[in-house]
Request: fold
Amino acid sequence: MGRIRQRSGPRITLPTAAVLRLMLKDPTADHYGLALAEASGFPSGTIYPILARLEAAGWLASYWEDGDPSAMQRPRRRMYRLTGAGAHAAREALTTTQRLLGVLPPATRPQVETT
Amino acid sequence: MTRPPHISRILATATASSIANGCLVGGGIAGAYVDGGIGDDVLVGSLVGLVIGLVVGIVVGIVVGNLVGSLVGGLVGALVGLVGPVGLVGLVGGSAVGDVYIVVVSLVVGFVVGLVVGAVGALGASIRRALNGRVFGADVRRARKDRQGRTGWCVGGGRRPESGGVGDAPWLAWLSAERLAEYLLARAVGRLPEGFRERYDEEWFEHRTHRSGWRLLWWALCVRATAARTGRELRDARLPRLDR
Reply:
């Protein structure tokens, strides 16, 4: 699969774009891995590396949810949220990807390299 | 009275096998009666009996809690009986087709065959448990030890069953999706960088509580298959980025 590596930031594959699009629907909301997998339709095995990559790039921040597992009657979840810079970069990345796919008209030449 | 597990296993297998055999012979005889003689209908009846025997064997197995043993017993009993009725009918002659003798002998033979199959199955289960302890034991024990006192809560409350959710059927332990998933996740965590293992172990532990059965197994396989990639993403993040 062709991958797009922006000058600064993680690789944007199709599943990555799907995850970003889901998270950008509500950039301030908290998400957890399994819900993202189910919402995007990609297997969990695809989602975890993406979340790791985006978090490593600083686009996402993750933290353990508050609350006592005993009171919640379930283990605590690892929550993911777009950072401010991450949300901005994600929008740009999605726009670039859409232009490359021909969904949007080309505005400026995107700085990309294919790996 | 509580019987030792292996006795229950042997009895369940033998019962399923004899029921399968009885159904099979009954089907054969019924076929012969309908046609008024012995011919292809015996075979057809036997095949119908084989199917009935398998179904009965599975039902008995589910009730007793020993699906695999009963399935194997029912299959072997049915296959033995597939040949048995034809030979027995030929032995006693066409005039004795409806003799109860055939059914009794067939049931006894089926029970004996079932006992042997059950005993072999019990031996196989013991070997499997020994191998399980050696092959799977270390990873699973390590994962459980790491998690002890940290996150043991399941959906619906209570701690996760240590047996892997197989209840009273140790025979099925190696087929348990819970146990296999635990093994796969333990291996997956092992592919991650040292500093991230505990975090992902806990994150995946929460996620696995949402799945069960084959869905859990498929999920764990996906996680295991991509664990190396997840680990690589995490390792890459520690390296200086050349494209920044």
Remarks:
- The two ends of chain A are 9 Å apart (CA to CA).
